Amino acid sequence: MKFGGSLCILNVGGRRFSFSAELMKRLPLSRLSRLHRCVSESELLELCDDYDRDRNEFFFDRHSEAFSFIMLYVQHGKLRFVPHMCELSFYNEMLYWGLESSDLQLCCQRRLDDRMSDCFVHFFPEEEPQRPEEPRGRWLEKMRRTFEEPTSSVAAQILASLSVLFVLVSMVMLCASTLPDWKAAETLDQHRIIEAVCIGWFTAECIVRFIVSRDKCEFVRRPLNIIDLLAITPYYVSVTVTILTGENSQLQRAGVTLRVLRIMRIFWVIKLARHFLGLQTLGLTLRRCYREMVMLLVFICVAMAIFSALAQLLEHGLDLEASNQDYASIPAACWWVIISMTTVGYGDMYPVTVAGRVLGGICVVSGIVLLALPITFIYHSFIQCYHELKIRSTRCTRPLSPEFIS
Fold first, then answer.
1. CA distances (Å), 149 to each of 154, 156, 197, 401, in order?
2. Where on the phi/psi map is residue 215: left (φ > 0), alpha (ψ -120 to 50), or beta?
3. Which one, 114, 177, 297, 307, has the greatest CB density within 10 A?
């Protein structure tokens, strides 16, 4: 949609702001940048409250002082709360304009986390009003919530408890099957029966959840559903191979492959993330903090390269006659560096020279410092994800609230 002129005027709460059309496209505010992608005035009015074509003026019934602080963030790159304004109200303005809590300064992020924790509230993106559903649609939606949201109803809680029980039973049977006493034929038969029952439950649950899901493609792409398939598939593969090759012939030669497939059933334990908030928080934190995790990995790799080369030189390279054979190569010294930086210290290899011991002390102190640097960001993200998922979980228990699928 082409606007009336090259100069756009934003009227926010009675206060006017002038921007060029090109500048509005580059603003890090998603609501303003989306204005230029509108193809009709009706789409335009979904993003703003009113539009004056003659003056090319957009009207927003929002807090003008909060928008002024947001524009200061656009100019200078630092976003702080408006003095004497509620943190939650300002955060609501941030979400409206397309900003996240991570755009705030760290001190303001802590204030927001404390405020949200005290009030136990959270803001979510605006959702479109849902149209009245047909009886069949309501039944599918009820089934979907029963299988996807363990806290939505009593039936969902019972179903989640059964699923957790089957996961625990399958894990216990998988661990017990490696014991020598479980190698007897009768014990193996009992184990196979219990394993088949657990697999049948997981398969039926996965099929029902696929049938009642809203978007089948999105269902297949979700990480937890992929893990479900990885946990179920090895059983059917091993059963198929057993039927095709027999118990005592080619199956024995394929034993390594089958053992790998069977041990993949350990992925069942990740199914607990569907029912436990702590595991969901861990997964969401790792997804949001992948940059910090990569940064931590780079720190460790750089330090490992430096200290391993120095350790190999001091312990083995300077005196070949009285050299420490544990440090015969740089890759071998890398193992010593990683266990020293993480303060594990297995004791299987250690420096014997004075210079090597000094280097070991520096390596340990450096490891503590390097590992501590990204922890602040990861900790803050973990607290934020925990509050977010906790409130969303509570939100799903309310019958009239919109649904959220993690």
1. 11, 7, 24, 13
2. beta
3. 307
In this prediction, the residues of the chain whose per-residue pLDDT falls under 70 are 1-6, 26, 28, 117-137, 183-186, 245-259, 261-262, 320-322, 392-406
pLDDT of residue 129: 44
**Which is nearest to 356 in space by CA: 336, 342, 338?**
336
SS (H, E, C) 81-99: CCCCCCHHHHHHHHHHHCC
Tens digits of residue pLDDT in 302-354: 999 999 999 988 888 777 666 788 888 898 899 999 999 988 888 888 888 88
End-to-end CA distance of the chain: give it in Å, rounded: 35
User: What is d(CA 377, CA 125) in angstroms, rounded to the nearest whole number?
Assistant: 24
8's enclosing H/E stretch is strand 7-12
Which residue do the tokens 């009593």 mark? 154
Q: What is the pTM of this model?
A: 0.52
**Other C-beta atoms lying within 10 Å of the C-beta of residue 238:** 18
Closest C-alpha among 380, 370, 313 to residue 102: 380
Residue 108 CA to residue 294 CA, distance in Å, equals: 26
318 torsion bin: left (phi>0), alpha (psi -120 to 50), beta (else): alpha
